[in-house]
Amino acid sequence: MVQKVTINIDGMSIRAPKGTSVLDAALEYGICIPHLCHVPYLSDIGACRLCIVEHVVNGRAKITTSCTLLVEEGMVILSNTEKVRKLRRNIAELIVAEAPNSRAIQDIAIRCGVKEVRYPFRNNDCILCGRCVQVCTGRYGVKAIGFVGRGKDRRVETPFNLHSDLCRNCGACIDVCPMTVVPCDGPMKVGEERLCGKCEPKMAFAEETPGFCVWCDLGEGFQCERYTLGVRNQAYP
Amino acid sequence: MAKINTIGDLEALRTDLQNYRNSFQTTLIVCGGTGCKASRSRDLINALKKELFKQGMEKSVLLRSTGCHGFCEQGPIVVIEPANTFYCHVSPDDAEEIIFKTVNNGEVIERLLYTDPVSGKTIQTESEIPFYLFQDRQLLAQNREVDPCSIEDYIAIGGYSAIAKTLAEMSPETVIKEIKDAGLRGRGGGGFPTGQKWTECRDAPGDEKYVVCNADEGDPGAYMDRSVLEGNPHLVLEGMMIGAWAIGAWQGKVYVRNEYPLAVEHIRFAVQQAKEIGLLGENILGSSFSFDVEIARGGGAFVCGESTALIASLEGKVGEPRPKDIHTVLDGLWHKPTTLNNVETWANVPSIILNGSKWFGSKGSKNSKGTKIIALTGRIKNTGLVEIAMGTTLNTVVFDIGGGPTGKPIRAVQTGGPSGGCLPLDKFYLPLDFDALADAGSMIGSGGIVVMDEETCMVDVAKYFLTFLQDESCGKCVPCRLGIDRMLEIITDISEGRGKPEQIDLLEDLAETVSQTSLCALGKTAANPVLSTLRYFREEYDAHIRQKKCPAGVCQELITYFIDPELCSGCGICKRECPHGAITGERKQAHEIDLELCQKCGICRSECAFEAIKVK
Ligand SMILES: Cc1cc2nc3c(=O)[nH]c(=O)nc-3n(C[C@H](O)[C@H](O)[C@H](O)COP(=O)(O)O)c2cc1C
Ligand code: SF4
Ligand code: SF4
Ligand code: FES
Hints:
The structure holds 2 protein chains of 2 kinds. Chain A is built from 7 helices and 7 strands. Chain A is α+β, with helices and mostly antiparallel strands. Chain A has 2 domains: 4-87 and 208-235, Ubiquitin-like (UB roll), CATH 3.10.20; 96-180, 2-Layer Sandwich (Alpha-Beta Plaits), CATH 3.30.70. In chain A, the strands form 2 sheets. In chain A, strands 2-1-5-3-4 form a 5-stranded mixed beta sheet, sandwiched between helices. In chain A, strands 6-7 form a two-stranded antiparallel sheet. The longest helix of chain A is centred in the middle third of the chain and has 17 residues, at 82-98. Chain A is globular, with a radius of gyration of 18 Å. Chain B has 5 domains: 20-133, Glutaredoxin; 151-361, NADH-ubiquinone oxidoreductase 51kDa subunit (Rossmann fold), CATH 3.40.50; 371-453, Ubiquitin-like (UB roll) (Roll); 458-546, Up-down Bundle (de novo design (two linked rop proteins)); 560-615, 2-Layer Sandwich (Alpha-Beta Plaits), CATH 3.30.70. Chain B is 41% helix and 14% strand. Chain B contains 24 helices and 19 strands. In chain B, the strands form 6 sheets. Chain B has a 5-stranded mixed beta sheet with strand order 12-11-15-13-14. Chain B has a 4-stranded mixed beta sheet with strand order 2-1-3-4, with helices on one face. In chain B, helix 10 crosses helix 11. The longest helix of chain B is centred in the middle third of the chain and has 19 residues, at 343-361. Chain B starts with 6 loop residues before the first helix and ends with a strand. One iron/sulfur cluster binds at residues 126-132, 156, 176-179 of chain A.
């Protein structure tokens, strides 16, 4: 029998097996914590920082990512405070300003409450979330792609930038890449990037009923773990 | 050399070595640190050696090449004991005269003495020099006593007696208690209580544990760790041995930056010597304690100094930080409990064991004990490595030790390296203490202090550090990679005259997000240069944004060069030197700059002997 612990998220008691992350535990119960770099079943790298929550220890709240935080008995988590929402919105704004040309990224921006983008748009093809590298190395144990370079020069590449013999052409990297999800109105040209915002009305309730999964269409767009795992079709534990 | 098997052996060897040292009438100490080496101290040492032979004095004079004395700008430095005569800027050609006059006849060579730039007087001995007068050199002073490549020198001055004492009379718990009571806090930047770290690591489950010495030192302009490791490697080793005993480790690693070849060489050699003599290896000094140390060379990325990135790099992986929800004291190198401390932290350990926690705690301020080594640079008269008691004020550091401004009045200091902050003149009453500086929006960090005068633009300073951090960020997490990038974009706008008032709010909002949500401490502190300059020098940002002016005359896009006709002698140098042909004028008549052609390179200004070229 797997040992279970009880944790408290936003005032709710939740039981989760030891060793699961707070993010997984929350999603299992339908508590929405936006996330991007997290790929189900794989170890988390904590790169996108969207899944931040407040972890309350001895009365002091600390901002940390829920995907890398493992559940512990009696843990107290606040996933949807004013502060978390603001920080998460600012992170999502940085992301969408960098790569607006993806429905997945636009969805995340809306889900996180981004209403305006205060930076000049760029039109990058890769948001460096690392999901592709994660599946390739984590799920298949192959290292056909990986990160190279540091800081501004960071990018995903095959070894020596050649098609690698290690690659099995499985296409998993493409499946998980948010940049392959085309915006509804088609690709945005350079100079025409914008915050789409069309789905904003769908999110009108998100602020009032925070933390609960409403099976928003957006989740599908940004490959929310609940969709990818098909939790919808499973009986709740 | 014979193996040392017991504490008795060690003490006997020490007595022999001390007698040997005392048998010399005179000791010539020559600095061979990286700074002085750059100014040819190696040639000087050879010249002195040759002279000693020539004048038949090699038996009565001990020549010692040591690590850094801290006053590198005066190098090469020679100190002659017992009179303690201090010579600076010594060249190999001076060797003959030094041996003949000073060593033989006790005469002082006036020309080689140090001249205090403040009083203009020459000074004979090291201890009277104002630069040294206000310091408390517990660690650095040992550098002149030892040749870093000689374990004998280290033993002669009392080395390895702290580990002997530890093994003979102290349990791991008493060692940790002593370190805790001393109030030692990490010198690598974070100021984390060392005793607490050791306790957690000792209590962590597992038999296999590690101690690691962080000698990555990637802050631009910092070289305190280099000087300690390079000048006195055995001190660091002894500290690590005591720490290993305390936490129950039998393996240690020293992670040294590859750009420090001399430090790598010296610590390697020190480990080899200690092994040969039996101070590293099995059953050290006849006890149950066994310990071994390996040296690893770092690739030179700034972020590799971060604890989890350093550990990844030691394991042969890419040096990127990982989330620290489980601390390295529990899950560190090869997933084993690991105690990582900075070079200077380790170097403080032996003296705490020998002199007691009370002695250590008597120096410093309430929550910052002991001394700290500072790399002091910028627009002041004396620059170099400075060791001061914690709690010494910035005023003392800048004006007494540093000797005050070189030209324009001083207006600020930047402390703590790239992730530190700027403090204005009216905060110079603050003591150098972890908490006082943090409350003021800066930090001690690893101990860099850059002094700035009125020709330094604070927007430009923020831009400089952001550029550094942007290059050095590993790029893994969003707030750091994109946040720093956007902050830099905004600051660049401001410094180039495109700034808008609302960008200040955006900058503050973004800075908060970056510092709250970044994965590692690089990102978490990256906003400090922006936040502290915004806090104390907001009017300067306003001047850039609203008046499109750079008051310090630094930001190229916002300044124009002009020639003051009153001061111009018409010599024509500027006209000749201007690579853009922007200057016109007849000989002996006031010249003029064509603003259309001027590229603002500033060459003319530095060439003009009459200071007639100004910026506005
Ligand atoms: C980006 C970054 C760079 C760092 N570089 C160094 C370094 O060069 N040397 C060092 O001792 N600590 C460095 N640190 C701090 C280490 O992470 C760690 O806190 C320290 O080595 C612990 O030792 P201490 O407690 O003795 O200070 C760095 C931290 C960060 C975030
Ligand atoms: S290629 Fe796609 S999945 Fe891979 S890091 Fe870039 S955005 Fe993420
Ligand atoms: S904060 Fe910066 S350096 Fe640290 S993990 Fe994130 S991107 Fe890398
Ligand atoms: S999902 Fe947790 S940091 Fe990306």
